[in-house]
Amino acid sequence: MQIPQMLALMQQRRSSRAFLPDAVPNALLEQLLLSARQAPSGGNLQPGQLIAVRGALREELSHALLQDVANQVPECEDYAYFPRPMPMQLRKRQVASAQALYGALGVARDDRAGRETQFARNYQFFDAPVALVVTIDSHYGPGGYMDLGMTLYGLQLAAAAMGLGSCAIGALASYPATVRRVLGLAENKHIVCGLAIGWADEAAPVNQTQTTRAPLAEWFQVME
User: Quick one: 15-209 is in which CATH superfamily?
Assistant: First the structure.
């Protein structure tokens, strides 16, 4: 049976962490954003805002974030991204994902400097031509994050449909106060994540990363 184009797109999508320098036309970016905003939304509230950070301001933001990382400045995150404590089953998935990433790069497990250098690239949006900061108003509950997540996935699928690569950047949520300060955002703007979009460099080793998904039996059941 032939796989429909959309299903094939969903199965083939991968996170891209290396990009070509070619610009993404503004008209194309707007088209992707408008398509993504068709995602389901409870009460049609359409929570969340996306900010394209460009030019000198983008450089300032990356510099400030890298300084925080270098100085090991702790910040109180706006929301808990991972379970606390992390169950062992999920910890194994996290470790396997890291092994796939650093394995593709040829970075050894004991190469701390190599791992830190790659992780720091999160705060440079992996040099993608489009750097987005994703925020949500603080009065939203978990449902707002769920709706926003569907929009972000829609955006990544729309990008893939147009031949673009993308990567969500959860690391940005580790320094929300810094992001708000540099961008001049109000305190009620919670920092959800970053998002890098651009033309993926298919020859880059990092883009050969392959992760796996849990088998269907682990997260789907039928009750009668």
Answer: NADH Oxidase (3.40.109.10)
